Amino acid sequence: MTELLRQVPENPVPAGTKAGLMKAADGLHIRYALFPNAAPSGTIVLLPGRNESIEKYFETVGDLAKRGFACAMLDWRGQGGSGRLLSDPRKGHIERFDDYVSDLNQFFTDIILPDCRPPFHLMAHSMGALVALLAARDLVNRVRRMVLLAPRWTFPRRCQCRR
Predict the structure, then answer these.
(1) pTM for the whole thing?
(2) pLDDT class for 159, splitting at 50, 70, 90?
(3) What's a Pfam family this protein contains (predicted)?
């Protein structure tokens, strides 16, 4: 089902890629891709940032494949090839940020665990890294390592207590 992915000569779809649509709990379709490896050392789940899509990561998938990893990836709801909540496809609106966490948990349950080889590692960028942090409690028994690149996260300011 690689026809779900955009074919660009300068950015070819990695060999063996399988793409599909996962039906989220609310009925929205979430596009995903699996990038198998003949003898994987495990699977890296790639979580893109805001306004990124699967196609942006083809080069990264190739680099990880050379290191012996299979990869799995999804487009967040409202982005890439996933369903939209608004009639304007250029707008990536969501109702609740927790919907991203639910989609990630369902992606693990429905797609990654049955179809991908462990151990599982997670590599996330920007908004994807924030979703990974929010989902960390659910992922603790599934994911061995997480690499979070530029998470959209701020630490609370130190309390200005009187002394």
Answers:
(1) 0.90
(2) low
(3) Hydrolase_4
